[in-house]
């Protein structure tokens, strides 16, 4: 058991982070990348005790945790590569024109770090979205010190990973306070971190209630700061008629796997499936029900999540318009989540906002619409989503252009003929959707574009080459892509 | 006189804008650029009545207004060019790898428009930051309909420009509701626009009180939306010892001009000048005072601004620690702003927050610091600024590295050996600083990067080439720069 950090401890941590910021921000992108790679190496070579500890704390299976650890190492290394490539810096150079009237000055712009970043560990990703996870990697790449608040459901795992980061910081001979690790189960610790004047941005992955509280605190500060909270989603899936006619049973099998993957504990879990009433949809529902009955319940991350799943599921199934299609034939043990499929009409969905709520776990609701117009109405009614999926033939897409446009308008990632679970770590990934999926859908929390969350542009006007940052010098010593007089180039000036 | 728009009228305008959004967003970047160029042409060819009306409403001189109109035409055309070049779209393509385990899907990302944008006209830029100004141009480029609330100080000017935009929309055969124009002198009109569910972003240039109110309303919505409020600044200038020794009198002349330019009614007006007490600083103060005495008062934009200037100036000069150095030798007529220079010690500045406040008009406060350490303390104490300036030799810069870093940390544009007034319209420009200079210092309101304020990324996963947006198709039909498998290129796939 760890004690919650006190306000005095948090003040001390933030003072040190602020001092370290002034040193760390001056490091070149190569030095920052070297630190990230050292953390990646430390994590990669960590002893088995880390996996064992994570298994005990999260109930996640060994294979999943080993995969997630490997993904976290990959994230650190690939974001380090992106940090060094430097496209994220958005370097722009507009050269002087002394002959113009009035003379045009030399102006050069690049992104600079915001300052200390507070990262909240996520319960469902003890490695990839926790202590050395995506937010930490992005903030370090941007040049920001990081203060991680360990998730109280896996504090020992977090401690071990924090030790690896401390070791890497020491090995790179950098100021210790570039990274700090605090514990806290109470809201007060989170509030003290978010409202501290030296905190300049916040990264969070978790519930709507948690993320929204951080967002409100951050905006009520004297100096408001950005909060990047990824708050989950119901990840709607539309089954269009042509595709459904072709492969109702195959889609059902694919989705039974996606709905129950990791006991449904992913923010990209498909919690809503929408089709037009009729024989093919009934065939899909029957097949999905048959699959779900055969899938055993799994142990959830911690008792709090299992309890919340039971409660939200009960609320959803307790709505008059909702009927249970199928549930797992296996009885659950303590803290296990039971796979369940439910169903309701499009009309019910449009009239009852309870049906729009996320049920975090292996649950999905199939919406039976009267016609294509009602499917479109559903799309227009749904709030912001991390992902949206169409199961559709090309002809379906052409026939339903309005639906395609409406769906594009509510999501961050738009998937065709696949499942939303499985978030690729690559530059083209957008993980973050319109509110309430995220507090700031203009940024991603997966992929190296996430670095840009923790930086802002500064223009340098009239600076001599000798004093400019390396990124903006005439000779382009870092060899990065820059936009020079509106032309994208790696050339020197 | 125009009546304030009613809530019913605003509802109707927003409903129409929302419908128009679904049509406008589908237009190619070339079609959007064509609209912007048509507006530019209309404005360029506008009859002299427009300038005459603006002169009557704003008290600004004819030459300034003709220049500002030309700048507005340039903005529209240059942002149209940037819209078509498409770098702002941040197109990313990561191709599939079916051989990987698990198979890697094809993922492609680009920015898409947010939705209807409300733009508040600025009192001090009736053309460049009003009806067809920078915010409107950026929002149209991004694919967003625009609703302008005319500034109540120049409603007729705004009406004429709105007519030019309506004409351009018609000429391009686009939906009329892509652009709407409403009037409103009361806070209620602004609040109704910002809190309307169909409003998806806000652009504003004006006072801290106005901008912060919009920001708070926007964040208290059920669906919070971004507000890009540029709220002014005191634009501190540090006089470093080597440079001051060399050219105290020249700097004083340059700054007398900058402080009084446009009767001081620019958000980049240098309101604070900081130096180390001693003979060179005294020489600078004496020379600046001599210049200021010779500069006549000018008529301000409207009586409200003249009144506010008098009040804020009185408050500042009423502080015990503040002494008046010089004021214009010419007595002011009604609504004229009198150039004034005041002075105080570094210690007084550090202890009295009233001295940090913007006095919008031809006023500047010279801070006499005890030593270099106190100059650094001043930099660490000042809140976010649009600009900061150093008057410094290269040796000064090397000797004061901590000051340079501290100043970089508080500003959006960092100027060396020039004046902050005069904002170049180019891609490398950053006009927007840390709060309270702006509500979101991660974005600029001048330069084509301002387009990105009104867009967000969407990833397309597993889409066939035929259905992808043109920006992301294999053949790159728009010929834009894209990052393909982490390589920046214009090549086809």
Describe the protein's architecture and organization.
Two copies of one chain form a homodimer. The first copy, chain A, has 493 residues and is of the alpha/beta class. The first copy, chain A, is built from 15 helices and 19 strands. Chain A has helices at residues 7-24, 29-44, 48-58, 62-85, 134-142, 155-171, 187-195, 208-220, 241-260, 279-293, 303-317, 346-351, 372-381, 394-399, 401-408, and strands at 92-94, 107-113, 117-120, 146-149, 179-182, 201-205, 227-230, 236-239, 272-276, 298-299, 323-327, 336-337, 340-345, 363-369, 385-391, 411-416, 455-461, 482-484, 487-489. Chain A starts with 6 loop residues before the first helix and ends with a strand. Chains A and B meet through helix 4, strand 1, strand 2, helix 8 and helix 15 of A and helix 4, strand 1, strand 2, helix 8 and helix 15 of B.
Give the overall shape of chain A: globular
Q: How much of the residues of chain A is beta strand, in percent?
A: 15-25%
| Unreliable residue runs of chain A | none
CATH class of the largest domain in chain A: Alpha Beta
Question: Largest beta sheet of chain A, briefly?
Answer: 7 strands, mixed
| CA-based gyration radius of chain A | 24 Å
Number of helices, counting only DSSP H or I runs of 4 residues or more of chain A: 15
CATH architecture of the largest domain in chain A: 3-Layer(aba) Sandwich
**Most extensive chain-chain interface:** A-B, 74 and 73 residues
End-to-end distance of chain A, in Å?
Answer: 58 Å
Number of domains of chain A: 2
């Amino acid at each position: 058991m760890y004690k919650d950090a006190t306000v005095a401890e948090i003040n001390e941590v933030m003072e040190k982070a602020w001092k370290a910021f002034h040193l760390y921000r001056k490091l070149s992108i190569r030095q920052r990348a070297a630190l990230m790679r050292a953390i990646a190496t430390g994590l990669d070579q960590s002893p088995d005790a880390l996996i064992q500890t994570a298994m005990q704390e999260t109930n996640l299976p060994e294979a999943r945790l080993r995969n997630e650890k490997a993904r976290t190492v990959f994230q650190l290394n690939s974001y380090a590569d992106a940090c060094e490539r430097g496209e994220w810096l958005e370097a722009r150079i507009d050269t002087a024109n002394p002959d113009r009237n009035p003379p045009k000055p030399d102006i050069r712009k690049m992104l600079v770090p915001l300052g200390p970043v507070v990262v909240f560990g996520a319960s469902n990703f003890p490695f990839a979205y926790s202590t050395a996870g995506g937010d930490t990697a992005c903030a370090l790449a941007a040049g920001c010190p990081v203060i991680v608040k360990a998730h109280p459901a896996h504090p020992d795992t977090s401690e071990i990973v924090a030790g690896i980061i401390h070791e890497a910081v020491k090995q790179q001979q950098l100021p210790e306070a570039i990274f700090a690790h605090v514990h806290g189960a109470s809201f007060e610790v989170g509030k003290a971190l978010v409202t501290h004047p030296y905190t300049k941005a916040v990264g969070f992955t978790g519930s709507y209630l948690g993320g929204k509280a951080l967002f409100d605190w951050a905006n009520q500060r004297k100096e408001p700061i950005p909060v990047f909270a990824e708050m989950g989603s119901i990840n709607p899936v539309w089954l269009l008629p042509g595709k459904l006619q072709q492969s109702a049973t195959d889609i059902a099998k694919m989705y039974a796997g996606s709905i129950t993957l990791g006991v449904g504990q992913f923010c990209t879990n498909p919690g809503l499936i929408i089709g037009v009433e009729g024989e093919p949809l009934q065939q899909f529902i029957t097949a999905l029900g048959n699959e779900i009955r055969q899938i055993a319940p799994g142990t959830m991350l911690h008792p709090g999540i299992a309890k919340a799943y039971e409660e939200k599921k009960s609320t959803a199934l307790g709505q008059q318009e909702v009927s249970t299609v199928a549930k797992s034939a296996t009885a659950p043990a303590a803290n296990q989540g039971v796979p369940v499929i439910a169903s309701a009409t499009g009309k019910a969905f449009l009239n009852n906002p309870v049906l729009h709520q996320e049920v975090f776990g292996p649950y999905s609701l199939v919406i039976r619409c009267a016609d294509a117009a009602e499917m479109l109405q559903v799309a227009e009614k749904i709030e912001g989503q991390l992902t949206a999926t169409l199961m559709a033939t090309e002809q379906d897409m052409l026939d339903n252009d309005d639906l395609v446009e409406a769906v594009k308008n509510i999501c961050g990632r738009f998937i065709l003929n696949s499942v939303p679970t499985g978030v690729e770590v690559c530059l083209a990934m957008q993980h973050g959707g319109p509110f309430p999926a995220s507090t700031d859908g203009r940024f991603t929390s997966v992929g190296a574009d996430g670095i840009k969350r923790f930086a802002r542009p500064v223009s340098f006007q009239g600076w001599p080459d000798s004093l400019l940052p390396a990124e903006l010098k005439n000779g382009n010593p870092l060899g990065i892509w820059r936009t020079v007089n509106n032309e994208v180039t790696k050339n020197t000036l």
